[in-house]
Design brief:
globular; 105 residues; Arc Repressor Mutant, subunit A; 5 helices; alpha+beta
């Protein structure tokens, strides 16, 4: 991986690396949503949601557009879900290993 690719990969991973941003991406998995739909669904204050959305948009993970007073969001590239699926698989494995270690103690 070239330096500029490594830098961008780190930016993307850093942008995803927050529980609320992972939850946002999961909400957008099936279809685009506006900010007014996402805030209550995620139980986030609008200002907190906006901060997370800005990070995801700046990293190129989300695309946003305005329609009236609403800002709509959708995932720019669905391959981001492969990253999330791999992370979930790793955490599932790690959780199992830790549970087995606790049972042996």
């Amino acid at each position: 991986m070239r330096d500029n690719q490594a830098i961008y990969a780190a930016e993307v991973l850093s942008a995803i690396a927050h529980p609320n941003r992972i939850r946002i991406l999961e909400c957008l998995k099936e279809s685009a949503h506006c900010n007014y739909e996402l805030a209550p669904a995620l139980q986030l204050e609008q200002s907190n949601l906006s901060r997370h959305m800005k990070i995801l948009v700046q990293a190129g993970i989300l695309i946003s557009w305005k329609k009236g007073l609403r800002v709509n969001f959708r995932v720019a590239d669905r391959r981001v879900y492969r990253i999330l699926d791999l992370a979930k698989a790793l955490t599932t494995r790690e959780t199992r290993i830790r549970a087995e270690a606790l049972m042996k103690s």
